[in-house]
């Protein structure tokens, strides 16, 4: 089973649960309480929208314990002297790796938290999660052609451009070395 929480220097990255996603979708007033974090003004961030939340909830419900950790993750900025623990973004996988060990990864950072390296840190944490499972051999990610910041986040984490996907988005790939 994939670990359901990880730490980076500034982030605590928490795997979504059915309870968190249900609150986020249907009882938003309880979501920050369950998460134990303040929410950014523009939540949900980027491509993480209601449809994505519903997709992740459906997948976690259908997949049971085996699905835990293979979908959405919440990026929580650790509290500092002047700022409480705050949800700054989300990311994760589009599901478990396929038979060849390939998994897709993505992330979104709330607008007010962009430009601080948190996207790079979130992707690094998710890559480490993939490594730690021992199941992933290759990660793929996609970015809009007009989103150079997202492309830099991927490249800083060892992803390389790999042409265009069918939907016209830029495809990035990265080999994953198994944990020793």
Question: In terms of topology, how is this protein built?
Answer:
Elements: E1 5-7, E2 11-15, H1 18-26, H2 31-35, H3 50-63, E3 72-77, E4 86-93, E5 102-109, H4 118-133, E6 138-143, H5 148-156, E7 160-164, E8 170-175
Helix pairs in contact: 1-3
> Would you identify the CATH H-level superfamily?
Gcn5-related N-acetyltransferase (GNAT)
* Tally of discrete structural domains: 1
Strand content: 25-35%
Query: How are strands sequenced across the largest beta sheet?
Result: 1-2-3-4-5-6-8-7
In terms of structural class, how would the helical and strand content be classed? alpha+beta
> Could you give the order of the helices and strands?
EEHHHEEEHEHEE
Q: What spatial form do the alpha-carbon principal axes imply?
A: globular
The CATH topology label is Aminopeptidase
């Amino acid at each position: 089973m994939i670990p359901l929480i990880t730490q980076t220097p500034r982030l605590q990255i928490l795997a979504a649960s059915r309870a968190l996603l249900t609150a986020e979708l249907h009882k938003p007033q309880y979501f920050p309480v369950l998460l134990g974090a303040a929410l950014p003004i523009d939540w949900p961030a980027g491509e993480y929208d209601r449809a994505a939340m519903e997709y992740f909830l459906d997948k976690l419900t259908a997949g049971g314990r085996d699905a835990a950790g293979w979908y959405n993750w919440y990026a929580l900025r650790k509290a500092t002297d002047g700022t409480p623990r705050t949800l700054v973004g989300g990311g994760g996988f589009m599901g478990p790796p396929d038979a060849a060990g390939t998994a897709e990864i993505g992330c979104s950072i709330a607008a007010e938290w962009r430009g601080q390296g948190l996207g790079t840190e979130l992707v690094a944490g998710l890559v480490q999660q993939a490594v730690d499972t021992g199941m992933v051999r290759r990660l793929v990610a996609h970015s809009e052609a007009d989103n150079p910041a997202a492309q830099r986040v991927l490249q800083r984490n060892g992803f390389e451009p790999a042409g265009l996907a069918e939907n016209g988005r830029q495809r990035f790939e990265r080999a994953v070395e198994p944990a020793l």
